[in-house]
Amino acid sequence: MIDEPFLLIESDLVFDPSLLTDMLYPDRIAIAHMKPWLNGSTVTLNQTNQIDAFHSDAVNGSNKKIYKTVNIYSLSLSSWYCVVEILNRYVLAGRVSDYYETVFQQLVAEGRLSFQAVFFDNKLWYEIDTLDDLKSAERIFSSKVSEAFTFSEVENFHFNNQSLSA
If phi over 0 gives left and psi between -120 and 50 gives alpha, with beta otherwise, what is residue 64? Predict the structure, then answer.
């Protein structure tokens, strides 16, 4: 049913909408350098900041630097058609529990999908997977309104919070 380029944004993210400016071009992916509290899908880059591989976790089996996917993607219509083709195959094969990144991983490996990296480092964004994440995000973003936190203070807050709760 999708017949135009679009942004895919997971619903567990909070961020300032101005961060989407650089995502308003086709076939982009928001990424950030790994931090101790981040988990989930990661990617590696080639020399031109194109994604060269998706990984299901922080282990990539190479010496390349890994980046966390922020879970914001822009997709051109031609890229979307490639994704739909593989998604349909997965569904027909009964593979309905795989993450969509599995499809991206396959298409990037085959050279049929290309994403340009957009770095979200030093920008306020947060993925909320737990109640503790929600509390941290509420504190960080309410503080942002009063501009009491810089990004490095946010990193320190989160790192110290994780250390205290561990």
Answer: beta
pLDDT tens-digit readout, 40-50:
889 999 999 99
Q: Which amino acid is at 30?
A: A
Geometric angle at alpha carbon 132, from 11 and 129, rounded to 5°: 30
How high does pLDDT run on average in the chain?
84
Question: Which range marks the domain in which residue 35 is found?
Answer: 6-119
DSSP 8-state assignment for residue 6: E
Host H or E run for residue 139: helix 131-145
The answer to whether the beta carbons of residues 86 and 93 sit under 8 Å apart is no
Q: Is residue 1 part of a domain?
A: no
Residues 45 and 102 in one domain: yes
Cβ atoms 22, 132 nearer than 8 A: no
pTM listed for this prediction: 0.80
Domain count, the chain: 2
44 touches 66 (CB < 8 A)? yes
- Do 161 and 84 lie in a common domain? no
